[in-house]
Amino acid sequence: MAVTKAHPPEAITAALTYGLTDLGENRIEELQEKVDLLGRDAGTWHMVGHLQSRKARQAAELADLVHSVDSLKLGRRLSSFSLEDGRRTSVLVQVNVSGEAVKSGFTPPEAVEAIHELVELQGLQIRGLMTMAPFVDNEKVVRGTFQKLRGIQEQAARIPAYEGMELSMGMTNDFALAVEEGSTMVRIGTALFGERLR
Question: Which of 4, 10, 34, 81 is most deeply packed, by most CB within 10 A?
């Protein structure tokens, strides 16, 4: 998935030209701007950044996949708005495997219990899990983060209503390790578009 956050619309047009149709934005305002400019059907739009629950309605309307459901409150709001519109929103459950205070997400002990509740929300389709590894030059730490998420996925798979198959993990700096550890979706920005402009 091409992370186009903070890059101009021309970058997205170039990505689409080369067949990259999964487009990720970090902020709901920027997602709105680019969808308005390029069209809802230009590609598959991903909301990859932290999402405040007060912006859940916008996300449910704009995103084909919300990567960052990090609380039951957010999940409930997304579900509620989706049901109002007569549809379901596809989401990933964000797990803060590394335990870093600067990152959002359920802790590993909370995650499986939260999934039990989230799968019961009729307005959501739980597609899988997402995490971010620490930005460190330590392969063991990074690989361990991805292995732990895969372990949580294996636990979640025992929940009868859980059908999530996606493991969204890995970015420009660590996607190779993520793929080796079972990632089904990598989020690549810098390697495709260079450093962000802002």
Answer: 4
